[in-house]
Amino acid sequence: MIRVVVVDDHAVVRQGIIRILNANTAVEISGEFSSLDELTTYLATNTCDVLLLDVNIKGRTSLETLKNLRVSHPDVRVLVLSMYPEEQYALRFIKAGASGYMTKDAAPSELVKAITKVSVGGHYLSSELAESALFGTATENPHTSLSDREFEVMLAIARGKRIREIGADLGLSEKTVSTYRTRIVKKLSCESNADIVEYVRQHNLLA
């Protein structure tokens, strides 16, 4: 039996995933959560085989949580679920330690297939993304050169958050956030927050 935990802050999506998995006798839902704090509390005394993790939880990317999980719970396999196209996020999450990445519009049978594969130590990517990663055919955009922290700060700016809010969310000082912003502006060839917002919109990095 594959023990699965589902983390998504949209109740309708979460329940839809659970219904799909409950129809498979090889899968057992061990927990469902709407926040990263709830997940952290659960994992302090429990475990699972596969964690289904949404890319964004309550306006924050799950990158840092994923990295922490690789240290605190190395045996838990993480399959990232996203409404965003693979080319925008997948490789970044795989490099951070995810065992797989799939979009939420995938067929239910594909979700079960992905869970089964990562539960035994495999990795899951769509054949198209795997091919582009293998042969280096993926399009390189300026935001791919951002570090994970810079990427998170960029998305926060695009959501209209102020420096102080971003620092509080990410556990960073305002000075550090400002430093990240300066790097982002330079790497994206932007001049203002408005330019950052427009860049993120054009590249479909926020829903």
Description:
This protein has 207 residues and is of the alpha/beta class. It has two domains: 2-135, 3-Layer(aba) Sandwich (Rossmann fold), CATH 3.40.50; 142-202, Winged helix-like DNA-binding domain superfamily/Winged helix DNA-binding domain (Arc Repressor Mutant, subunit A). It contains ten helices and seven strands. It has helices at residues 11-22, 36-43, 63-72, 86-95, 108-119, 127-135, 148-158, 163-170, 174-188, 193-202, and strands at residues 2-7, 27-33, 50-54, 56-57, 60-61, 77-82, 100-103. It has a five-stranded parallel beta sheet, sandwiched between helices. Strands 4-5 form a two-stranded antiparallel sheet. Helix 1 links the parallel strand 1 and strand 2 (27-33). Helix 7 crosses helix 9, helix 7 (148-158) crosses helix 10 and helix 8 (163-170) crosses helix 9. The longest helix has 15 residues, at 174-188. It is globular, with a radius of gyration of 17 Å. The two termini are 34 Å apart.
Write the layout of secondary structure elements.
Layout: E1 2-7, H1 11-22, E2 27-33, H2 36-43, E3 50-54, E4 56-57, E5 60-61, H3 63-72, E6 77-82, H4 86-95, E7 100-103, H5 108-119, H6 127-135, H7 148-158, H8 163-170, H9 174-188, H10 193-202
Parallel strand pairs: 1-2, 1-3, 3-6, 6-7
Antiparallel strand pairs: 4-5
Helix pairs in contact: 7-9, 7-10, 8-9
Instruction: Give the assembly state of these chains.
Output: single chain
Q: In sequence order, what are the helices and strands, one letter per element? A: EHEHEEEHEHEHHHHHH
Q: What is the C-alpha radius of gyration, as a whole number of Å? A: 17 Å
Helix content: 40-55%
Tell me, briefly, the overall form.
globular
Terminal CA distance reads 34 Å
Strand order of the largest sheet: 2-1-3-6-7
Total beta-strand segments: 7
What's the domain count?
A: 2
Average pLDDT over all residues? 88
The biggest sheet amounts to: 5 strands, parallel
CATH T-level topology of the largest domain: Rossmann fold
Stretches where pLDDT is under 50 for at least 5 consecutive residues are none
* CATH architect. name of the largest domain: 3-Layer(aba) Sandwich
Class based on secondary structure composition and strand pairing: alpha/beta
